[in-house]
């Protein structure tokens, strides 16, 4: 039987999985990314990969390759990891793929973690069988992955899918990325927490501030969602704005790309799930109704089982792509 | 020699061209789309195609097919023309391709006119040789066409590329499409003229109103650009907003899709060309700098010679796609 090794590199925790070609996770290993101290992420990854490779050997599985999803932009030509908003700073500028390929003697592919997640959803998950899907991952940050007509959209420099830092309000609030009015400002965990902190700062008696023990720095997105559910007007305003901004991005995706499936996932998506009706009504205010009718929209909490499967899906995607390229280049093609 | 027939169907004028496979226009015919009266667009198209087909016969050219660009959304599976913002109402709901294919005994393809323009730029124009490009066509309305990794983005229902009606401000002004804060509201000819009319209505002494002979309905986008060039503050505000909104859309395209080339064309783009620096500075406020460095941005007036070549490029694109599909399906593939 054939299998692949999929790795999800996180700012906090990393996971490696031994994944069958049907997506079944046969073995898994995880560890804090820096469990041997700062700057040791690559050591951790090597350990995790070795661990699941050992399992593959025991089971006598043929390994097709290794795929890694990293929380960064990855240059599609050289595989170099970009430094933008990178939580694993020692990876910046590294071409991890070729190095691991040599280390393990296996084809190795590296891509952005949400790109890998989109491939996993497309290969094993909710997007199985569609030609095109967009995944928006609303966590602390906000990433996206785009598959159109069976191809992952990487872009010239690997920024394809950076919809979290695409503007939904050209005169909106400044974003930590240096931009303005980005979706992440309104609909990511960090953006929601920062908006709440700014609104309650110095305003004693605000329920959000009381709930955070008087310290604005302790306000988190889950706290904002809880306060909104209890009717706090400040929190409600922030959640309403998140729904509207997300509705606008749904409008951009539905009108601009019109995929068969738009999957909105991650922790913040889980918190928004009870407000799905509100988000969809906001989207109706932006998208053409016939376009919206053909893009299925699902708002779901993240499926933790997909983390290691992202890298695995990347290997299967690249293997299939190489086979197609061989076909097109063949004399009979 | 092989050639194709390309047709550009306009709300006012339609053009058919006999186009060689290298893009050379060998013959051209044009007519007002409704020159035989309301509801006669299809008759006109048949006449125009017959005219250039006659020329192909004289020259003993082998015809590969007919391609039409229409100012509408086209369903990619059935080829049915959508009714959204359609200036040639009798085409709504028609599957023009199969009908013309039968009428002329030639493979016939129909797509959105800016999709066809994007294919023309990619096949014969500024985008020749790139893997991915986005064309924004800023005219009276605002359309776009997207080619990613060599594939035209049509979307599930044909709305792929409707970036003109994608929001750049989630709490922005209502758009005639039913949406809100669309790019077209700020950066199309219609949007610019409507913004100016709203701002000067009832305000005697406004330079824009005087220039329009006191009648707000006579204010046009070119008039707004001229008044801004002469320092009129109302017109300048509207043009500044157009630059900012366009900069935000450049940010969405560069961060979200990161194509090799972004071509901004059409009449309004021509008027904005002297303000290119302003538009690019606005874009820098939204896009990641490394992403922006790899997407070449060109702001150019439309190339009228490309109109008929759009349909021609569509035929060449579809022919190549069918050949690739044959390869993938072959036993050796």
Cα Rg of chain A: 21 Å
Shape of chain A: globular
Roughly how much helix do the residues of chain A carry, as a percent range? 40-55%
- Number of structural units classed as domains of chain A: 2
CATH C-level class of the largest domain in chain A is: Alpha Beta
CATH fold field value of the largest domain in chain A: Nucleotidyltransferase, domain 5
Strand content of chain A: 15-25%
Relevant terms:
homodimer; about 325 residues; alpha/beta; Nucleotidyltransferase, domain 5; 5-stranded mixed sheet; 10 strands; globular
Topology:
The structure is a homodimer of 333-residue chains.
Chain A: E1 2-9, E2 13-20, E3 25-32, H1 41-58, E4 62-70, H2 96-104, E5 108-112, H3 113-123, E6 133-138, E7 142-148, E8 151-152, H4 183-187, H5 189-200, H6 207-211, H7 221-229, H8 233-256, E9 261-265, H9 267-272, H10 276-284, H11 289-294, E10 296-299, H12 306-329
Parallel strand pairs in A: 1-4, 4-5, 6-9, 9-10
Antiparallel strand pairs in A: 1-2, 2-3, 6-7, 7-8
Task: Please characterize this protein's 3D structure.
The structure is a homodimer of 333-residue chains. By secondary structure, chain A is α/β, with parallel strands linked by helices. Chain A is built from twelve helices and ten strands. Chain A has helices spanning 41-58, 96-104, 113-123, 183-187, 189-200, 207-211, 221-229, 233-256, 267-272, 276-284, 289-294, 306-329; strands at residues 2-9, 13-20, 25-32, 62-70, 108-112, 133-138, 142-148, 151-152, 261-265, 296-299. Chain A is globular. At the A-B interface, strand 7, helix 8, helix 11 and helix 12 of A face strand 7, helix 8, helix 11 and helix 12 of B.
């Amino acid at each position: 039987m054939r299998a692949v090794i999929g790795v999800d590199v996180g700012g906090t925790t990393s996971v490696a999985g031994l994944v069958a070609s049907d997506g079944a996770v046969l073995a898994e290993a995880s560890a804090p990314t820096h469990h041997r101290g700062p700057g040791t992420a690559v050591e951790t990854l090597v350990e995790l990969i070795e661990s699941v490779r050992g399992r593959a050997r025991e089971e006598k599985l043929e390994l097709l390759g290794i795929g890694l999803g990293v929380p960064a932009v990855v240059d599609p030509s050289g595989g170099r990891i970009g430094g933008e908003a990178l939580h694993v700073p020692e990876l910046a500028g590294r071409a991890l793929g070729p190095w691991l390929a040599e280390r393990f003697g296996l084809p190795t592919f590296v891509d952005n973690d949400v790109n890998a997640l989109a491939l996993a959803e497309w290969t094993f998950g909710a997007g199985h069988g569609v030609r095109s899907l967009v995944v928006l991952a609303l966590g602390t940050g906000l990433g996206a992955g785009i598959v159109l007509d069976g191809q992952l959209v990487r872009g010239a420099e690997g920024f394809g899918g950076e919809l979290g830092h695409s503007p939904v309000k050209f005169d909106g609030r400044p974003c930590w990325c240096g931009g303005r009015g980005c979706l992440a400002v309104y609909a990511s965990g960090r953006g929601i927490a920062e908006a709440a902190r700014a609104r309650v700062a110095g305003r004693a008696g605000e329920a959000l501030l009381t709930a955070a023990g008087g310290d604005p720095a302790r306000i988190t997105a889950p706290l904002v969602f809880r306060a909104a559910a209890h009717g706090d007007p400040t929190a409600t305003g922030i959640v309403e704005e998140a729904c509207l901004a997300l509705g606008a991005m749904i409008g951009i995706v539905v009108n601009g790309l019109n995929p068969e499936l738009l999957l909105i996932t991650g922790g913040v998506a889980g918190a928004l799930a009870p407000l799905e009706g509100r988000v969809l009504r906001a989207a109706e205010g932006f998208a053409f109704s016939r376009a919206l009718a053909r893009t299925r929209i699902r708002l779901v909490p993240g499926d933790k089982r997909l983390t290691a499967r992202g890298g695995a899906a990347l290997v299967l995607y690249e293997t299939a792509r190489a086979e197609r390229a061989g076909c097109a280049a063949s004399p009979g093609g």
